[in-house]
Amino acid sequence: MDNGAISYRRFRDDGDESGIAEIIRDYKDGLILYLTSIVGSVQTAEEIAEDTFVLLGTKKPRDKGGGSFKTWLYTIGRNLAIDYIRKNRKRTFVSLEDSAELVSGEAEVERLYLRKEQQIAVHRAMRKLSSDYQQVLWLVYFEELSSRDTARIMHRSVRSVESLLYRARKSLRSQLEMEGFDYEKL
Q1: Rounded CA separation 119/104 (Å)
Q2: Which of 47, 53, 117, 173 has the highest Cβ tally under 10 A?
Q3: 3-class SS at 52?
């Protein structure tokens, strides 16, 4: 059993408020970034992540024990994101680029600038991919989830996720090459 499940069980069964606080602290950022890949807006993803944690805190659903706590939590968030998309299909969102970090030292600034440009290029290229491709790339590479956990979150078979991941990497590579970036150096 992972720490998230232990914290949640402490909160749900014993009423220990610190359990839910630990869950929010440990999973908030990753959940928001994952949800951003689904809804395309950081602000909306933050709202959906908040709704996910509110659902845990108020309804206190029980985990069916099919995987890790993180997988279960991300599945809840994904379902809320899909509900949100269904309700708001006609709206269009524009995401804001991240602001540059201030760093001392010229060499460090240049290194960080180049790294940031590469990250922006990858994220920009990923946004041009289909939603399924974005999700599978995000879950496997940024969240470092296994194919099995990714399959549970996306409601697919492991084989389907592996095939989807292969096609998503290939599509991302061609998108980056069209934009003039060398995929192998990223």
Answers
A1: 20
A2: 53
A3: helix
Please tell me the distance from the alpha carbon of residue 98 to that of residue 174, in angstroms, as a whole number. 24
Which has more pLDDT, 61 or 150? 150
Closest CA relative to residue 75, chosen from 160, 157, 163, 151:
151
* Contact assessment for residue 175 and residue 128, using Cβ atoms and an 8 Å cutoff: yes
Count CB atoms within 10 A of the CB of residue 169.
Answer: 16
Contact 70/6 with Cβ under 8 angstroms? no
Predicted pLDDT at 98: 42
Among 88, 59, 84, 78, smallest CA distance to 143 is for 78
Q: What's the pLDDT score for residue 160?
A: 94
pLDDT tens-place string over residues 19-69: 889 999 999 999 998 998 888 888 999 999 999 999 988 888 887 666 788
Cβ proximity of 75 and 35 under 8 Å: no
Cα distances (Å, whole numbers) of residue 115 to 27, 101, 124, 175, 186 = 25, 11, 14, 18, 9
Q: What is the dihedral of CA 7, 13, 18, 22, to 10 degrees?
A: 20
- Name residues whose C-beta falls within 8 Å of residue 152's C-beta, 6 or more positions apart in sequence: 66, 67, 71, 75
Give the three-state DSSP class for 92: coil
Mean per-residue pLDDT, 81-85: 92
